[in-house]
Design a protein that fits this description.
Largest sheet: none
Number of helices: 1
Strand content: under 5%
Helix content: over 70%
Radius of gyration: 17 Å
Number of strands: 0
Order of helices and strands: H
């Protein structure tokens, strides 16, 4: 039973990491688009 709880917690953690990574990539793309205009 403990293993199931650990797996669930890991699943949540992984989901947060993945969505966080997607957000970071989107922000990077926006910055890259804005950079040429900022220079």
């Amino acid at each position: 039973m403990d293993g199931g709880i650990v797996l669930m917690a890991w699943g949540d953690q992984k989901q947060k990491l993945l969505s966080g990574r997607q957000e970071t990539q989107q922000k990077l793309k926006r910055i890259e688009k804005a950079l040429p205009f900022a220079v």
